[in-house]
Amino acid sequence: MEQQNIAAPTTASQQEPPKPRTQAERVIAKFGGPYKLSKAVAALGDPAKTLHPVSIYRWVYPKAKGGTGGLIPTASMPLVIEAARYDGIFLSVDDLDPRPK
After folding, report:
1. How high is the pLDDT of residue 15?
2. 4-40: b or e for each residue (b if 16 or more CB lie within 10 Å)?
3. Which of 2, 15, 54, 80 has the fewest CB atoms within 10 Å, i.e. is most exposed?
4. 7-28 residue pLDDT tens
5. CA-to-CA distance for 9 and 2, rounded, in angstroms?
């Protein structure tokens, strides 16, 4: 008879703590993803002020890989805030705080 390897169920105390979420991850999640954030900014109507989804993805990449390390660039922040206001998305002070939570 073969013996099966049955692992004990893990409890909340045994699991790794959740990874801190960066400013960019929190804001992108509020919009529902980089593509939806890009569409929300485009809906503002100014063709000179657009954000491509690839640019938004780079916000969550580490600086070593060409990203911003989880921070929304200051040039993009007014667009993000205006798009949130236009779409009725509430961005709290905690969402915009640059420190990982």
Report:
1. 73
2. eeeeeeeeeeeeeeeeebbbbbbbbebbeebebbbbb
3. 2
4. 556 565 567 767 669 999 999 9
5. 21
CA 92 vs CA 46, 53, 85: distances in Å: 25, 23, 12
Convert the pLDDT of each residue in 26-83 to its tens digit: 999 999 999 999 999 999 988 888 999 999 999 999 999 999 999 999 999 999 999 9
CA 3 to chain centre: 45
Using CA atoms, how far apart are residues 71 and 68, in angstroms rounded to an integer? 6
Q: What is the dihedral of CA 29, 61, 94, 77, to 10 degrees?
A: -90
